[in-house]
Amino acid sequence: MHLGRDVEMINRSEADWLHIDVMDGVFVPNISFGFPVMNALRGVCHKPTDVHLMIVEPQKFIREVADSGAYMMTVHYEACTHLHRTVHAIRDAGMRVGVALNPHTPVTLLEDILGDLDMVLLMSVNPGFAAQSFIGHSVVKTAKLRRMIRERELKTLIEVDGGVNTETARVLLDAGADVLVAGSYVFRSPDPEATIRELKAL
């Protein structure tokens, strides 16, 4: 009920991006908000928006995501039959492009597309609900992806989303993560700005 207030807090904070989860109730068992809310955010959010589409057929909404002012559009490997085509359509629309992997999906499936990506998002919980427990194998997965990126001499970022707090964040950063998404840990803390500052200091 206080989205504007929370976005103003993000604007003041040391957060680099605002991560936006879009869910359709089909790809994941939950529904979030859609383009009317995202378009409203465009007028008040001063940080680049990192839009994560947890939906079926995300390629149908590339133009709408671009029109909302998104900096990064991330689609799921599991939701895209023609991933290469979708990746390049996102880039052609003027956005950076990311591909997300569910916890059970191996990073090796990205070998043939990794060089076309600005970012890989590793889900460290099963997507769809906040405040889930961190899946420990995500650390091994992060390290494996970092080796793949290093071996190819790429600049692809690794983003990890799910169960991020100061304890898991440190381990993930040591494993090679570049970007961490923290939702419940930040917004349920007594002082969200201080919590963001603490995470940024790691």
UniProtKB/TrEMBL annotation:
Biochemical pathway: Carbohydrate degradation
Q: Name one Pfam family in it.
A: Ribul_P_3_epim
User: Which InterPro entries does its entry note?
Assistant: Aldolase_TIM, Ribul_P_3_epim, Ribul_P_3_epim-like, RibuloseP-bd_barrel
Catalytic residues at D21, D161
Catalytic activity, reaction form? D-ribulose 5-phosphate = D-xylulose 5-phosphate
**Which cofactors does the annotated protein need, by name?**
a divalent metal cation; Co(2+); Fe(2+); Zn(2+)
**Name this protein carries in UniProt:** Ribulose-phosphate 3-epimerase
